[in-house]
Design brief:
12 helices, single chain, globular, Aspartate Aminotransferase, domain 2, 14 strands, binds pyridoxal-5'-phosphate, 17% strand, 361 residues
């Protein structure tokens, strides 16, 4: 089966095999060695000298952890949102009592860093900026370099949802001054769901010391003190750690630069091929993501039928649109274990299935 959704993603056999390893004591020396090694490689992939933790949860758990560890109820935060995941960040901050100011952009467009500057210049009481690097719901990659430069200028805390970008799209955490960066094992990491990985900067630790939002499971201070012993505070998803550990060896072998370049090639190919079928991208080319391609559903095409035909007759699974984009777009995931050949296969399937769903190629 060709699983081409933006997570979970297909996994190389070597990594699947690693998951069948027998359980070990998660408070023993073998686990300690594994988590230290994984954490060290992750730091090079996050491009940070700060702390990196493995949390047993999906990406959303990492988002919640980033909020409750850095903020107090009543804190004012600017949530910069251009899709469903930006909205989710706002919802999480709000539910824990932050005073959320939304800076929203039309879905399918990118965040305008100048608007971030305007918002920050108008309200000195904003403490933190929450932003999505790669908005998976719309296939847009935001210009995080420019956004982070503005946030640094105003000396705010910067919390980044990089769940579907990190390990695929360049994100130099320290160089750009990102304070908490979140990703998830089932996105670009060639691993199954089960772990969120988060980086924590010095500035984030200072915020952590003051933060009063309730937390128990998510407490970064506990994560830090346990990691010093080669452990996690709570029982981790051991099998997913086996997989991630093996995946990170492959990451190290290929090298971050090459991985980023491969995603750029694959993304460019996906966009070109989609257009060659006579379809249009949902976002503008200038901000289109290298990990997920969102395709506009043209007049006459029944996208639900298309996805069903692809699944049942061509063994190809693509993603639909989320929320207000349901039926308006469909998405091709190309992150993690992916090459140009996989795009060829998706395009072949689309070529055959599109006419059956009402669109002549
Ligand atoms: C997938 C994703 C999430 C949510 O992750 P879960 O693992 O489903 O909790 C959040 N943000 C972005 C940008 C994502 O792509």
């Amino acid at each position: 089966m060709q699983l081409r959704i933006p997570g979970p993603t297909p996994i190389p056999d070597e990594i699947l095999q690693a998951m069948t390893t027998q359980m070990i004591n998660h408070r023993g020396p073998q686990f300690a060695e594994m988590i230290h090694k994984a954490t060290d490689i992750l730091k090079t992939m996050f491009q940070t000298k700060g702390d990196v933790f493995l949390l047993t949860c999906s990406g959303t758990g990492g988002m919640e952890a980033s909020v409750v560890n850095t903020l107090s109820p009543g804190d004012k935060v600017l949530v910069v949102a251009n899709g469903a995941f930006g909205d989710r960040f706002a919802a999480i901050a709000e539910i824990f009592g932050a005073q959320v100011e939304r800076l929203s952009f039309e879905w399918g467009t990118a965040v305008d860093p100048q608007e971030v500057r305007r918002a920050l210049s108008q309200d000195a009481s904003i403490k933190a900026v929450l932003v999505t690097h790669n908005e998976t719901s719309t296939g847009v990659t935001n210009d995080l370099e420019a956004i982070s430069a503005v946030v640094r200028e105003y000396e705010k805390l910067l919390i980044v949802d990089a769940i579907s970008s990190l390990g695929c799209i360049d994100l130099p955490t320290d160089e750009w001054g990102c304070d908490v960066v979140i990703t998830g094992s089932q996105k670009g990491w060639m691993a199954p769901p089960g772990l969120a990985m988060v980086s924590v900067s010095e500035r984030a630790w200072q915020a952590q010391a003051q933060a009063k939002m309730p937390k128990y499971y998510w407490d970064f201070a506990k994560a830090k003190s346990f990691l010093e012993k080669g452990q996690t505070p709570w029982t981790p998803a051991v099998s997913t750690v086996y997989a991630l550990d093996t995946a990170l060896e492959l990451f190290q072998r290929e090298g971050l630069k090459n991985i980023v370049a491969r995603h750029a090639r694959v993304g460019a190919k996906a966009r070109a091929e989609v257009k060659s079928l006579g379809l249009s991208l949902f976002p503008d080319d200038s901000c289109a993501s290298n990990t997920v391609t969102a395709v506009q559903v043209p007049e006459g095409l029944d996208s639900k039928k298309l996805l069903k035909i692809l699944r049942e007759e061509y063994d190809t699974v693509l993603a639909g649109g989320q929320q207000r984009l349901d039926g308006k777009i469909f998405r091709i995931g190309h992150l993690g274990y992916v090459t140009e050949k996989d795009i060829d296969a998706v395009i072949e399937a689309l070529k055959a299935a599109l006419p059956q769903a009402g669109f002549s190629v």
